[in-house]
Structures are given as structure tokens and as C-alpha cells.
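Progress report, Aim 2. The chain analyzed during this reporting quarter is listed below.
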Amino acid sequence: MRPWVCLRAAHRDGYVRTCVPARGRIDDSSRRSTFRRWLAPLIGTLMTALGVVGLQGAIRFSLSAVPATGTIVDFHKTQARSASTIASVDVKLPGRAPFRREITDTFGTVEWSVRGIVQLRCSHVESDEPNCQISSWAEVWLWPIVFFGIGATTLWYVQKRASRSHP
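Predicted C-alpha cells for the chain:
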């Protein structure tokens, strides 16, 4: 005997029930298999690609950035429960006049005080708008490593599950 699939649809006269013979297997695991089949590899690939691009940017920044110091002009916390701080800093680069930049301390690694000194690293110093960041490992490397790790782990898990289900 062939299984049937019944659907209940709204109609202007009430609800209509329609039943048709089922094709293939019917169970709840089809959603999970669809997720494993294409959504998990897609998410893993996107996360890995974002991680690789971020790591490439972090490597480029680490190799091209020059050390600089900054004098804190003004700062404020972004939210009450966040460690993030945004500060206006006068940046002093060797061989260049001081200029003001807005610096973000995402992880709260700097002790902020007005007229305090903060260590920075700046890239693209020959341009009119140098890119300056706090000289912190977490500011440059943490998110690219996290994205790459999540993506690579997801792809490894998908591959492991695929090889286990298809001997």
C-alpha cells in the first residue's frame, strides 16, 4: 500500500483537505539531511573564506604597519555593558606632523585617560589617510582566526559525516 500525503488549506468556504500519493520517503529527517547536504557546507565555506580574507588582511597589516604613539584627546565607552571604547587620538608618526584619528578599542585592552599615551600601529603611512589601530594582538588577529576556525571545523565535520554515511 502506497503512503499518502494530506494537506489542509484555507478556502473561502472553510478548510479543504487534499490527499495525494506520496513520492519517495516521508519523514522529518529530510530537513536535517537538507541542512547537512548543502547549508552546512555553504556556511562552512563562507566562514572559511571570510577567515582567509581576514587573515590575509591581518598579515598584510602586520608586515606593513609602523609603530606610532598617540595622545588621547577624548574617549567614551560605547555601551554600559561593553568593554569597547572609542577615542580621539593625536597620532605621532616619525617624519610626519601629528594628526587626529578616531581609534576603537574593541576588547578594552587600553587604560584610557585624557592626555594619556597609547601605542598604535599605522599602515598606509604615505597616504593622506593612514590606517591606525591599537597595537594589540586581539584587535588584529582574533576575529579572522575565529571565523577561519569555525568555517574549517564546520567543513571538517561535514566531510566526516559524509564519509561515515557513504562507506
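Residues 65-139 form one domain. The chain is about 40% helix and 30% strand. These observations will guide the mutagenesis work planned for the next reporting period.
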